[in-house]
Amino acid sequence: MAKVSLTVNGKALTAEVEDRTLLVQLLRDVFGLTGTHVGCDTSQCGACVIHLDGRAVKSCTLLAAQADGAAVTTIEGLAVGDELHPVQAAFREHHGLQCGFCTPGMIMSAVDMINRLGGPLDEETIRHELEGNICRCTGYHNIVKAIEAASAQMAGLSQAAE
Amino acid sequence: MGVEGIGARVLRKEDKRFITGRGRYTDDMAPSKTAQAVFVRSPHAHARIVAIDTSRAKAAPGVIDVLTGADLAADKIGGLICGWMIHSKDGTPMKAGAHPAIARDVARHVGDQVAIVVAETKNQARDAAELVDVTYEELPAVVDLARATDPDAPQIHPEAPRNIIYEWSLGDAAATDAALARAAHLVTLDIANNRLVPNAIEPRSAIGSYDPAEEHFTLYNTSQNPHVARLVLSAFVGIAPEHKLRVVAPDVGGGFGSKIFIYPEETACLWASKRIGGRPVKWTADRSESFMVDAHGRDHLTHAQMAFDADHRIIGFKVATRANIGAYMSTFSSCVPTYLYATLLSGQYDIPAIYCEVDAIYTNTAPVDAYRGAGRPEATYLVERMMETAARELGVDPAELRRKNFIRTFPHQTPVIMAYDAGDYDATLDAALAAADYAGFGARKAEAARRGKLRGIGLSCYIEACGIAPSAAVGSLGAGVGLWESAEVRVNPVGTVEVLTGSHAHGQGHETTFAQLVNDRLGIGIDKIAIVHGDTDKVQFGMGTYGSRSGAVGMSAIVKALDKVEAKAKKIAAHLLEADESDIVIEDGKLKVAGTDREKSFLEVALAAYTGHSLPAGMEPGLKEGAFYDPTNFTFPAGTYVCEVEIDPGTGKTEIVQFVAADDFGKIINPMIVEGQVHGGIAQGIGQALLEEAVYDRESGQLMTGSYMDYAMPRADDLPSFRLMTTETICPGNPLGMKGCGEAGAIGSPPAVINAITDALGIRDIAMPATPARVWEAYRAAAPAMAAE
């Protein structure tokens, strides 16, 4: 058994788990944060993407113990109160989701993409960057549009703040 | 239409929970004391189960029980069924083998379940599953269609000699043969429609629980049609009578057909819960399991001949298809390659004689059933590959050959059952050709050639039959169920509305579009309208969502219920306003006396209905009405897709440089949602054409494409952005004039892509998926001189 202490969405949490427990299992089964999804068993689909110390990671590829001491943000922690993150809002505005299952991972990847690369992002970059996230519903068309729009908006916001 | 009415681009009401991580899928649920289940699955494609020793597994930490097919049989749990009877052309009924929820004597495909392990935690169940000692006697297996009916092929079910389930036919053989005999030109093609894995991103999941005090079962599961699941589990599998079984399908993460069917695992979880004394039993598929046991799609081999007269008019079409059914007959597997396939072989064309034979064949593979389009993609792929090939052989423009043969008068009775009710195929062809700048293709091809690229263009003029379907008609064709839909409109005393629908949403946005319909009628705003679905305890009955039927059939039921609600509301308003009922109109959430300023709000009328203080003499209190809608015909969405590709002859890589879709879906409720449906459908169609194929090893029967590392799912950078447009002919068969849009993209796109690739390479055919390796080889074979440069 391993004792894991970490910060999840700003809250300090501790759990005692089997050594083989994956981070995604800790989040879903122990902490009840079921917004992070599991869509495959080979780290391909990206439904489980979260932020670990500010970087997007697939939480199914990490043992929970490896996250000891880390700060984790999940989809549940992205909005500030009732105020959606611009990427969340853009996914709704541009119909970037249908069944919603890949959506949390898509949004977490998109936020990371914009944080890393700045904005506005072009279609080619976005499509390339989304290689680790699979969606079966949307054909990616509106996901790309949503990320384009959010990246432009966030670039505008950061410019305005400077 | 109003900002929230029919035709408006309304943002989805359901999105907020999904974008904030508050969706509620089956695997998210953890009822107290839930036990976890893992299945022991056959590693062999075909094997006799000689013995199962569960003793070590039962003794493992945390294990509650280990159950086998023998336990299932002892409890008299029935097998799974195929719900559509097909008769062979000699009149004999289809030869279906048994389909137990847990295999007892023989495992018939890799992944067939042979035991269920129930433990305190999933890890304990997994560990214990490794300790279940199954002694198998391996048997020879057959996975491919071409060999499965050979006299020496392994026999999969004793009920089906030579693995043939049925040998069915449709159409007039003599008339078609006569047309072929007098043809001025005969086009012949042998075509394979590749086997696909649906791959909804949410894996299937089930929580079965039993309440011993009430003798009542509850099943939470990933279903597209919870009521049908309850019906089958009750009436055929024998879990419990319907009033003792509740089935709930909460948020469901995509289906594409694969979650229509009633599967072994759900059955086993319900039964296991009773066996262990009523603790809930939960199973969630690993993706590897999804690949092995979710029903696959397509998998046809077809030989076809199309006859043209000297004027290039089609005079006959003869088709012989072998359809892979897999190791067991899944719920609707029998109707997909028959009534959902051969009935669409007329395409958009006036063809006087059609004859089709379909042999359905068992193999040692996962069951094959409906996957997005279900039979119609196979028909469209065949027809549109034939048309393209014919145009090239006849030396005429492919668009013009199609145009010459279009059906232009409606209703049109085809020789294969369907009576098309409305359409304008010139309109979608013209729209697509103009948008794609078809006329300018030659210049683009020349320009691409200067860059060393091979450019090709391909068309597809698809038709599909949706809105499944008139109950009496499908009943006469062998369906075990009616295919109507039900709805209940429940007005609350404060004037808000709940709509209970038998349709089920798993990405389609019903919570928004259905609310738009209600708002269009009552004008109360979509925030005051809730759509309730997916729970057999809440909704009386429903046939579920598949076959693009939720608009044309599901919403039509809501219209009928709304008609009744409006009629009663008008009576109440007339009474309150001392006016004649015929003078009452409903506008902007008010019931008004036409031409006056006298009015009552919808809230006031609803409240009056529930207080009952002042109602017309003899009227019952309350404002709640239900309706069943049985379709009068199928609906016939149709359109033209144009795909333009560039191929790198050095690598064989195909890039889609333009994709145009012109669709006629009849009346559209929410264009944004319709576009999303088409985007997703096209992506799946391009996936079939370029990337996806479920491959079994011919000798061992092992699934070679059992994960996302081996099965090529379309990713964002495999696809282009799409250009969509719609034309509109109103469907005369239902009150809203809707045709359906859920499957069109997957139906229309594969032939457009392959027609473009074969055009670019100057070849007759290429197998799907047209991977870079296949394209490169085809190019090398077709142009050895060029390749040698």
From TrEMBL, chain A:
Domain 2Fe-2S ferredoxin-type per the UniProt entry, residue ranges: 2-78
Keywords per UniProt: 2Fe-2S, Iron, Iron-sulfur, Metal-binding, Oxidoreductase
First-level EC class: oxidoreductase
KW Oxidoreductase (keyword) present: yes
Domain of life: Bacteria
EC number: 1.2.7.4
GO molecular function terms noted in the UniProt entry: 2 iron, 2 sulfur cluster binding; anaerobic carbon-monoxide dehydrogenase activity; metal ion binding
Name of the protein this chain belongs to: Carbon-monoxide dehydrogenase small subunit
From TrEMBL, chain B:
Tagged with keyword Oxidoreductase: yes
Domain Aldehyde oxidase/xanthine dehydrogenase a/b hammerhead span(s) in chain numbering: 20-140
EC number: 1.2.7.4
The protein's enzyme class: oxidoreductase
Transmembrane residue ranges: none
A Pfam family of this chain: MoCoBD_2
GO molecular function terms listed in the Swiss-Prot or TrEMBL record: anaerobic carbon-monoxide dehydrogenase activity; iron ion binding
UniProt keywords, alphabetically: Molybdenum, Oxidoreductase
InterPro entries for this protein: Ald_Oxase/Xan_DH_a/b (IPR000674), Ald_Oxase/Xan_DH_a/b_sf (IPR036856), Ald_Oxase/xanthine_DH-like (IPR016208), AldOxase/xan_DH_MoCoBD1 (IPR008274), AldOxase/xan_DH_MoCoBD2 (IPR046867), AldOxase/xan_DH_Mopterin-bd_sf (IPR037165)
Superkingdom of the source species: Bacteria
Name assigned to this protein: Carbon-monoxide dehydrogenase large subunit
Organism: Prosthecomicrobium pneumaticum
